[in-house]
Structure formats: structure tokens, C-alpha cells
Design brief:
By secondary structure, the chain is of the alpha/beta class. It has eleven helices and twelve strands. A six-stranded parallel β-sheet has the order 2-1-3-4-5-11, with helices on both faces.
Length: about 350
């Protein structure tokens, strides 16, 4: 894809001054008149000028490097996704630079800036838990820098995306609990700003509606993905006057914490409460009781994210249409959700 970054020459032409004057002003050299320096800095900011921007139309600027930003590599989903992305990128002749946000919006901004300075040719990003302002991502879009979002994304950003059908997956998980005798089903969700979490809550509510189960908002608890907060929210949910007899949890990591909290209170799984989660982490099959979980096609998702990015990187113009690839999921049924298996 061709990129047209703002150059010193563009600023000089707009202000009708020499390129060397612009260069000295941007470097803060003292011989430049203060008013001239102000004008240069103001226009550079307005035009979103960056001295180290990638100029992909110059062959010597090709770095064959992709920047990948994920919330946390300690999460199985993201480490597995990175393995897939890196393998697909290497096969295409690209290397990968990886950053993790540790669920911080500010760190996400810093990661984007640092990767731009490293002259990556494109980005594959999953947004952090705390991200609710997308200006730093929209800025990449305005600069025509190829970008693919996966897993956690913003619907308002016009880029290619690789996601799963979260609504359908959550509907499937909730329906499974209903079919196994649950009638008061709770949901341990993520932060309210996460599109992924909200879609899963909607799928859960749709399943309840299909079976005429009236469960109010008091059965939906939002967690921040930390172990401590998940334990606290689980105990609060189980302290309701009519506690749930089934729970859908937004991720396996949170499910492990929730199950630990319930076991400490003598709540039996699945006899008292059946549990279904998402991500199908390998340890789910060895946890006690084994955890029913929604499996996502991580290998295929990573490969697809790279394919969509390369499609833009290797295009001859900026007219490549954006594509949202929605992948199917599979419910892996284990002991934690089978109330009938005693």
C-alpha cells in the first residue's frame, strides 16, 4: 500500500520558507525567529508530521516488520495468537515486533508510538481493557498505515478485523446451561466499554429470552479481569437472595478465580452451580472439576489477521476494501456444566 506521510518539504512549501529553515525550527535551533518556529511547530502538529514516519513508496524504507500489540502475553489466548501471527508473518518474509499493554490505555498509546519509531509497516492490535478513546488508532487510519484489529476492537474504526461471533458463542454457552437444568443464570462479564464483553452479554440475554427465563440485570456482574476483583464479584453474586444455579464467565482465567472463590465457600460445581467459560485454555481439561469452555480457532485467526494485513501492505494503492472476518466457535463440554453428572 502506498503511504503519503507529511514531509519537511510539505511544511516548507505551505509556509513559503526553505526546507533547511523548517528542519532547524523542528530541531529547536536558536537561530530561527520565534514566530517562524511557532508557525512551523503549529503546522507540523496540524498536519500530524512525524520525523521517522515510514515512507513505503521508497523501496529503501521497507522494513518488512509488523507491529503486534496485545493486552497481556500471560493470557493463553494472546500468547497462542502471537505464535500463529508470527508463524504466518515469517512464512511471508516479515518479522514481528511485539508489545503488551498490561491492560493500560496509556501504555497502548506509547506502544503505538514506539512501534512507529521502529518503522513497522503495519499493525495487528487487540485493544486494552482500559481503552475507551480510539484517537491513537484512528490516527493510524488517517495516515493510511495498514491495521488489523482482532478479538477486542472498536466498531467505529474502519479497519479490517478478525473476530468470533461472540453473540452466538454466548448464546450457545447459556443454552447449554439451560438444557442442563439451570434456571437462574448469572454472567461474569468484562468491563462495560469492551465490545466483546457486551456482545457476549447480549447473547446470554437472547438465550434467556428464548426460553422465557426472566433474569434481571442483578445477575450480570462486570469484572476488570483481575483475580481479586473476580473473586469479589463472584462472592457478591453468590450472596444474592436467590443466587444463580449456573454462571457464564467471559474468560477461563476469570472462571478459575470464580470457581476457587465458590469452593472456598463450600459451593459445589456443578451440583450447586454449573459453569461455562470462554477460550478453552489447555489447563481447562485438567482443572478440578474440568471446565466447559468455548473454543476459538486461534491458529486460523492469527493466520487470517496476517493475511488481511499483507493484503494492504502489498497493495499498489489505498483502495483495498476493509474486511471483517467472523470465525466460528465450538463449545467443549466438560464436568463443570453437567449438573446431571453426579
Amino acid at each position: 500500500m502506498k503511504n503519503t506521510p507529511v514531509t519537511i518539504k510539505d511544511i516548507a512549501r505551505s509556509l513559503n520558507i526553505s526546507i533547511s529553515t523548517v528542519s532547524r525550527a523542528l530541531r529547536g535551533l536558536p537561530e530561527i525567529h520565534p514566530e517562524t518556529r511557532k508557525a512551523v511547530m503549529r503546522l507540523a502538529e496540524d498536519l500530524d508530521y512525524q520525523p521517522n514516519q515510514l515512507a513505503k513508496n521508497l523501496a529503501k524504507s521497507r522494513t518488512k516488520t509488523i507491529g503486534v500489540i496485545v493486552p497481556n502475553l500471560s493470557y493463553y489466548y494472546y500468547s497462542a495468537m502471537l505464535n500463529s501471527i508470527e508463524e504466518a508473518a515469517l512464512q511471508a518474509g516479515y518479522s514481528v515486533l511485539v508489545c503488551q499493554t498490561n491492560e493500560s490505555y496509556l501504555r497502548e498509546i506509547t506502544n503505538v508510538q514506539n512501534l512507529l519509531r521502529s518503522q513497522v509497516e503495519g499493525f495487528i492490535i487487540s485493544l486494552s481493557r482500559d481503552t475507551n478513546n480510539y484517537e491513537h488508532v484512528e490516527r493510524l487510519v488517517r495516515k493510511n498505515i495498514p491495521l488489523v484489529l482482532f478479538d477486542r476492537y472498536a466498531e467505529s474504526i474502519n479497519v479490517s478485523k478478525v473476530i468470533v461471533d461472540n453473540h452466538a458463542a454466548s448464546f450457545k454457552a447459556t443454552e447449554h446451561l439451560i438444557e442442563n437444568g439451570c434456571r437462574r443464570i448469572g454472567f461474569l462479564a468484562g468491563p462495560t466499554q469492551l465490545v466483546l464483553s457486551n456482545q457476549r452479554v447480549e447473547g446470554y440475554r437472547a438465550a434467556l429470552a428464548k426460553y422465557d427465563l426472566s433474569v434481571g440485570d442483578q445477575y450480570v456482574f462486570h469484572c476488570d479481569y483481575t483475580q481479586e476483583n473476580t473473586i469479589m464479584q463472584t462472592l457478591e453474586m453468590m450472596s444474592l437472595p436467590q443466587p444463580p444455579d449456573g454462571i457464564v464467565v467471559i474468560s477461563d482465567r476469570m472462571a478459575f478465580s470464580a470457581m476457587y472463590a465458590m469452593s472456598q465457600k463450600g459451593i459445589r460445581i456443578p451440583d450447586d452451580v454449573a459453569v461455562v467459560s470462554f477460550n478453552n485454555e489447555p489447563v481447562s481439561a485438567y482443572f478440578s472439576p474440568t471446565l466447559s469452555s468455548i473454543s476459538q480457532p486461534i491458529q486460523e485467526m492469527g493466520t487470517e489477521a496476517v493475511r488481511l494485513l499483507l493484503r494492504e501492505l502489498e497493495a499498489v494503492d489505498d483502495t483495498v476494501p476493509k474486511e471483517t472476518k467472523v470465525m466460528e466457535t465450538q463449545l467443549i463440554i466438560r464436568t463443570s456444566s453437567l449438573k446431571q453428572a453426579r
